[in-house]
Amino acid sequence: MFQIAFLTTAGLLGVHSLKDLPKRAQGGIAYKKQNTLFKSTLKDESIIPQYVDTKCDHFNKADTCTFKQKYYVDDQYWDGKGPIFLEIGGEGDLSPPGGYISTLAEQYNGLVVALEHRFYGESIPNNSAETANYVKYLTVEQALADLNAFTEYFKGLETDGKSHADAKWFAIGGSYPGALASWYRTAYPEATVGSLSSSGVVNCIIDYTDFDKAVTAAVGSECAEQIRNVNNAYERIIGPKPEGEGWEKSLEQFHCEKDMWLEDFYYMIADAWSMIDQYSAKSQLCGTLLSVGKNATDEELTKTFSDLSNTYWGTDFCSGGFYNTNQLSDPDRWDINSRSWRFQTCYQVSYFNTAPGSGSLRNTNVNMDYHLKQCAAVFGYPMWPSSAKVNQIYGGSEPKADHVFYSDFSDDPWQRASVDYSVSNTQPYFLSKCDDCGHCKDLHAPSESDPEPIKQSRTEFEKYLAEWLAEAG
C-alpha cells in the first residue's frame, strides 16, 4: 500500500483563505463562524507547537543564519500506512489544522503536519521586520524552499516508531498558499505527486481593478449601487481633506487611529464590504445595506455600514495595523503579520486592489499611485513589484505546473487572479457557481448543508486525487 503526504496551505487579504481570518477580523461574528467550520479535531494535549531550524537563505551556503519555524503535528489518525497531510500557513499566525484536511486525515488514516510561513506568527528570521531583513529573506522562492526543506526534514523522523521516509506528498492550498501549492509543483516537481489549489491566486496582477468588478458582479446591481451610496456618503461627510468633525466621526465609527491617511480609510471601508462578500456572506451584506432604503440619509448609511462592519469583523478591524500607513511604518506600533504581507505585495506578488475607471465601488483615490506611495513610505524607498517575473517563472494565469486541480467560487473577488479554465488535461478546473460561495469554500469541514456545487467540486477533485495517487504507485 502506498503512503501519501498531503501538503495543504491556507492563507490571504490581503488574500486570506477561509481557514484563518486575518487577525484584524477576528473580533466579530465572522470569526466565530469560521471557528465552527474549521474547528481543529486535535486532542487538547496534542495542540503543542513544535519548531524546526530553518535556513534563512536556502540559496546562499555562506549564510549561516537560521530561524525557528513553527509547526503542529496531529497523529491521532496515523496508522503508519496512511497519508501524511502537510498544511502550510499563510500570511498570519499558524493555527492547529482543521476543516477538510482533518476530514481527509480521518478518511485516509493519515498524519497531519502544519507549517508556519516565514515572517508570520512566531517564525521570524532574525526576529526582525526591518526592510533590509525582508529584502534579504522574504520571497516566494524562499517560502517554496522552506516547503521542500521541511519535507526532507520530516521524512527523516518517525511517529510512534513508524517512519515517514517513504511518504509521497500531495499539496493542497488556499488563496496565496493556493498559489504556492501550484508554484511548488513547478519549482520542486519531484517533491509532490499533485496539488489542490483552492482560490489560488496564481496570476500576480499589479493593478487589480478586477477585484472591485468581481464584487459588483457577485452582489448584483442594486446592492452595488447601495455600496456606492455608502462610499459617497463618507466622501460627503469627510470632504476633500482628512480634517474636521466629519473626519473625526468617521474614524470613531470604526475605532481607527487618528493619524491614518485619508486613502487608508477608504481602502479600509472598501475591504470591510468586499471581505463580507469574499467570505461567503454577500446575502448578509446586501440585506443589511438595502434594509435602510435607497433614500437613506448619509448618517443612516454610514451608521448602518459601520455597525455591520464592527459586528461582523470586530472593532479592531481598522486599528489592527493593516491599513494605517503610519502604523505600518512605526516599529513601536506595527503588526508584523500586516507589515510582512504588505512587503510581499510591494516587493513581489502585488494584487493591489484599485478603483476601476468606471463604476468603482471604492473611492477613486485608492489607485496605483496610492499603493506605491504607501509602499515607499512604509519601506523607505520607491518600489515596483516583480510580479512580471513571478508570472514568467510560474506561468501566471496559465500555470506551468502539472497535476494541479484548481477550484474557484463565483462570489470570490480573487477568482479573477486564478485560472479560469482547465489549463491542460493535468490541470483541471472547477468553478462552483452558487450564492454565498466565496473564498476557499471547499476547505471547510464538509457538511450535508453545503451547496451542491461545493459537493460537486470536492467529488471532482477527489476523482483526480485518486487518479494521481494511483499513478504514483
Main attributes of the structure:
473 residues; nine-stranded mixed beta sheet; two-stranded antiparallel ribbon; 16 helices; disordered N terminus
Query: Termini separation (Å)?
Result: 8 Å
Structural class label: alpha/beta
Number of strands: 13
Percent helix among the residues? 40-55%
Q: Mean of residue pLDDT?
A: 92
Tally of separate helices? 16
Radius of gyration in whole Å, from Cα? 22 Å
Order of helices and strands: EHEEEHEHHEEEHEEHHHHHHHHEHHEEH
Strand residues, percent: 5-15%
Largest sheet: 9 strands, mixed
- Report strand order across the widest sheet: 2-3-5-4-1-8-9-12-13
C-alpha geometry: globular
The low-confidence runs, each spanning 5 or more residues with pLDDT under 50, are 1-13
Short description:
By secondary structure, the chain is α/β, with parallel strands linked by helices. Helix content is about 40%, strand content about 15%.
Helices and strands in order:
Layout: E1 4-10, H1 29-37, E2 50-55, E3 66-74, E4 84-89, H2 100-108, E5 111-115, H3 131-137, H4 140-155, E6 158-159, E7 162-163, E8 168-174, H5 176-187, E9 194-198, E10 207-208, H6 210-219, H7 221-238, H8 244-253, H9 262-278, H10 282-290, H11 298-313, H12 325-329, H13 336-349, E11 352-353, H14 368-379, H15 387-394, E12 404-409, E13 429-432, H16 452-472
Parallel strand pairs: 1-4, 1-8, 4-5, 8-9, 9-12, 10-11, 12-13
Antiparallel strand pairs: 2-3, 3-5, 6-7
Helix pairs in contact: 4-5, 6-7, 7-10, 7-11, 9-10, 13-14
